[in-house]
Inverse folding.
């Protein structure tokens, strides 16, 4: 007879808990394979070999939420190929709902070759012409899954090409009409856009629809056309909008700033030894969305919001201590352990 250990049991309860309170986070967009050099600090041309790593910001966020004990799903398209099936398996292994995933037999799963050069700059080479994620159609959307979501999270890469762009806009509409919180991380990848102007326009076209937006300092400079990302007035005048419940500006290891209608402030970063910064922003997003999914009052309660953002900072920090995005995303246990150790010191 199979017997449950208490931890198995509490896990089951926790999963049911999430389902009952309807705190599902649905992440929409691209999932792909990153090929990363086996040695650091080289250009793509110099790399002797590459290691495959699952990637794609929305998928990373879905896994991050699930690792924390939250409830998440991924909607997107991959190729009906070995890489596509592998990516679906990785999501399943991480308890991410995959019923919204689609497989295209006429296009390949997207690939990206990514390296951190010796000068610290990231170099990208994308194989997407077109890749399966760009071909998701509105008719392929899992509408029921969207209607169950508490939070609908998306980026901007899915806005670059049709038919995916129309599917993205339709998914936003369905989620909004179902009373969902819309969460936006523009996650700018200029190399994928036809031009900088096209990127700026598409990213800003849907800007005022989100309830929660996370943006980096570089993205502020880009979207405002060169303004000072540290100036609160720039952020409040050009980027804050009446529908926003929360705007977060991430500053890497320095932490983050937050803006709501009622208050603004900053949370200092968490000091760790960085190994690889891949996925840190996605881990941060999964941390804050995990908190919002279980408690929508944090938009009005600054003390609770600050606590949630500190938690998100730890998620981001712990991710840079491991290589790759998905393998390095922290569990709830790892964060509690970190807090314990920090309290002792």
């Amino acid at each position: 007879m199979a017997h449950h250990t208490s931890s198995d049991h509490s896990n089951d309860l926790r999963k049911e808990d999430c389902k009952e309170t309807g705190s599902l986070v649905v992440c929409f967009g691209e999932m792909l394979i990153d090929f990363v050099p086996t040695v650091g600090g080289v250009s793509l041309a110099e790399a002797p070999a590459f290691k495959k790593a699952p990637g794609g910001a929305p998928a990373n966020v879905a896994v991050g939420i699930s690792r924390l004990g939250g409830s998440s799903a991924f909607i997107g398209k991959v190729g009906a190929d070995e890489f596509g099936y592998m990516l679906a398996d990785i999501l399943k292994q991480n308890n991410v709902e995959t019923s919204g995933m689609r497989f295209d037999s006429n296009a390949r799963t997207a690939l990206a070759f990514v390296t951190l050069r010796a000068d610290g700059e990231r170099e990208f080479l994308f194989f997407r012409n077109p890749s399966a994620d760009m071909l998701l159609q509105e008719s392929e959307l899992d509408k029921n899954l969207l209607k169950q979501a508490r939070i609908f999270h998306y980026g901007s890469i899915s806005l670059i090409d049709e038919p995916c762009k129309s599917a993205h806009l339709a998914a936003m509409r369905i989620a909004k009409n179902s009373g969902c919180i819309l969460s936006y991380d523009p996650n700018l990848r200029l190399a994928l856009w036809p031009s900088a102007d096209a990127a700026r326009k598409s990213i800003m076209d849907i800007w005022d629809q989100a309830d929660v937006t996370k943006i980096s300092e570089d993205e502020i400079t880009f979207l405002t056309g060169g303004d000072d990302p540290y100036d609160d007035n720039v952020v409040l005048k050009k980027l804050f909008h009446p529908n926003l419940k929360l705007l977060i500006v991430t500053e890497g290891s320095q932490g983050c700033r937050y803006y709501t209608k009622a208050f603004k402030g900053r949370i200092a970063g968490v000091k760790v030894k960085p190994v690889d910064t891949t996925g840190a922003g996605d881990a941060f997003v999964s941390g804050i969305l995990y908190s919002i999914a279980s408690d929508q009052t944090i938009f009005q309660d600054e003390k609770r919001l600050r606590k949630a953002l500190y938690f998100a900072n730890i998620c981001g920090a712990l991710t840079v201590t491991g290589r790759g995005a998905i393998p390095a995303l922290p569990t709830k246990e790892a964060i509690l352990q970190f807090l314990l150790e920090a309290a002792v010191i």
